[in-house]
Structure formats: structure tokens, C-alpha cells
Amino acid sequence: xxxxxxxxxxxxxxxxxxxxxxxxxxxxxxxxxxxxxxxxxxxxxxxxxxxxxxxxxxxxxxxxxxxxxxxxxxxxxxxxxxxxxxxxxxxxxxxxxxxxxxxxxxxxxxxxxxxxxxxxxxxxxxxxxxxxxxxxxxxxxxxxxxxxxxxxxxxxxxxxxxxxxxxxxxxxxxxxxxxxxxxxxxxxxxxxxxxxxxxxxxxxxxxxxxxxxxxxxxxxxxxxxxxxxxxxxxxxxxxxxxxxxxxxxxxxxxxxxxxxxxxxxxxxxxxxxxxxxxxxxx
Length: 282
Hints:
Pfam families: CvfB_1st, CvfB_2nd, S1_2, WHD_CvfB
CATH superfamily of the largest domain: Nucleic acid-binding proteins
Helix content: 10-25%
Number of strands: 18
Family: Belongs to the CvfB family.
Shape: elongated
Number of domains: 4
Protein name: S1 motif domain-containing protein
InterPro entries: CvfB_fam (IPR014464), CvfB_S1_2nd (IPR048588), CvfB_S1_3rd (IPR048587), CvfB_S1_st (IPR039566), CvfB_WH (IPR040764), NA-bd_OB-fold (IPR012340), S1_domain (IPR003029), WH-like_DNA-bd_sf (IPR036388)
Structural class: alpha+beta
GO molecular function: nucleic acid binding
């Protein structure tokens, strides 16, 4: 059988009511009228992308994709189906599924419609085509070495891996960046486009990136978050200067130092007071 998920040059054998029968190496595939934008003559050769339809029949399209077997490219998420996976557009009429087995455990950080992933094509155990996200090893061959001048500069990149420890991105310039979990307020989605600030250019040419604003900018945001939390909890929260850093991060997604800076700002403004290890709204 001709390999599905590949682009093949086939010969038009004959025209039928629904389209054209193509042939190569004595194997036939159907090219539906909807899958080509021109009339084709018998014996004409045409480049097509091969896949199988729902009945398992070998099918062709003249709309050639950007992604084929063993070659990688970016594909946009077009549909998210809980408990199944995410369908991506590879540039042809057939959208490809990224199985939930190749996505994060928690669906909250699955790609949303419009996010993009770096994928290739592969097959499941039943021989059906799937889109497969690139591994760290594959992406390592794609990245460039980042220059030292990027320190403190803004960068934009796509998230290609995310977990509790942090997220890895590929920037628009093909630099690899890592966002530690302490440098973000929430875990980004796989495939999400994020903008951050370079806080370190490492010796191996990769970047450490922060999604948090500079301290002087974040203090106001953190103070607002604390005020909102107070208002939602009858004007009292069981946190103060001596609270455990992990408890603070678990609730406010900020460091203890950032929390204390925000508390200091609010106390200076006369909006809160601290008593017995708790903080009260004035």
C-alpha cells in the first residue's frame, strides 16, 4: 500500500462521477472533485497527499499540507474535544487529531482554538493518521543560540511543553526559552503565544524568561489581587508577614517577597492592617 501521510506523484487512470481514479505502482486512490480546483485529463500526472477516509479507503487531495510523515511544521488548533484531543489544520482539507495521550494530563492547559503546535504526522495502532507534537530532541535541532544582548529584552514565543515545574517556549527567532513556575502567575496552555522578559541568557544559548512584570509594575497588580481576596473573604485573610511562602504562592501565585511588598504598599495607603498573623481590610 502507498504510504498515507505522504505526498505522491500519481497518474490519472480515469474520470468517474465523483472524481478521478489515480494510480501508482498498481495501487489506486480516489481524488474527489472537491479535492482539486482544476480539470484533469487521463494519463496526466499530479502531486497529491494521501490519507484514508472513514471507511479505510485510500483517498487523495491536491491540497498539499505543510506537514507530512517525518517532517515538521506549525499547525493551528481548530477544534478541542474533551477526553479525545485537539484537531489541527495542516493546510489540507483533512484536519488531524492530536491524541489526548500526546497532550498534558490536565485539559485546562490543552491548546485553545487558534494556538499553534509544532507537529509531524504519525499513525495510531489501527494505522490511522495522527498529528504528533515535536519532542525536546526534535526541537533542539531547530533552535538557534541566543545572543547576550537579549538580557532584559521582551521576547514572544510558543509554548511547546508545560508542567508544574515550568514551561518551555520557542521564540519567534527560534531561541529556546524556559519559564520557571515562579515566573508566571498561571500555567500557560500548550501552543499558546506568550510574551515575556529575558531574565538570563544561559551559557548554552538558551533563555530564562519571566512572564511577570517588573517589581515596580507588579506591586500594584499584587496589591489589587490581595484587596480583591480580602473583599471576597469578609475582609480578612489568614496571611501576614510570617506566613509560609508556599501557602502564599498557592493562594496568590506570587513569591513571599512580592506579597510583603504589596502588603507594605496597602498598609502605607491605610487600606489594611495586620493582627495575630492575619490581614484585615480597614
